[in-house]
Amino acid sequence: SQQGEEDPQALSIQEGENATMNCSYKTSINNLQWYRQNSGRGLVHLILIRSNEREKHSGRLRVTLDTSKKSSSLLITASRAADTASYFCATGGGSNYKLTFGKGTLLTVNP
Amino acid sequence: DGGITQSPKYLFRKEGQNVTLSCEQNLNHDAMYWYRQDPGQGLRLIYYSQIVNDFQKGDIAEGYSVSREKKESFPLTVTSAQKNPTAFYLCASKVRGDQETQYFGPGTRLLVL
Predict the structure, then answer these.
(1) Alpha-carbon distance B47 to B6, whole Å?
(2) pLDDT score of A95 more than 70
């Protein structure tokens, strides 16, 4: 079953603009992660936020987590053409170490 | 893609044939995972292994088999029982314990002739 659902499914912006993607999930979580996937490649881990954290930054990335609404957002500031990729949220953790991925948001950054 | 390799990059399967996808990691990770990704979809877990000589079924294990004889290796066999095998297959690994980040290989695209 897919725990996380990203919104929007696709997003197209101009270079220099900010991109915001959202993720909603259904059950309680230990942590939520965001991954990036370039076309035809493996996934790359971007950032992890734990259930007791509300906001986290890494370079141009800002992630927020609202456990009361079971939602998270990923903000990419000052986007670049190289940010073009699919972005997935993943939830999970616990003793079985399993992650559950959403269907992803396809971000296109136009030069 | 870190220290995880997958081979081959493309694999063609004939009807009724079993094929094996390779996944090797040199990260000294205990846990390894196999995912299937269909076009425009997220990742679905096929099998995972937390330790050598042990593995568990994921959400879509039917038609697949795995082995974990060595810490570095977690091969996936797509059997003839898997009627719709065309997909992108991703292998991942992680350190056992609280560290949750998974590291992914570059993937194998399986096509049916």
Answers:
(1) 16
(2) no
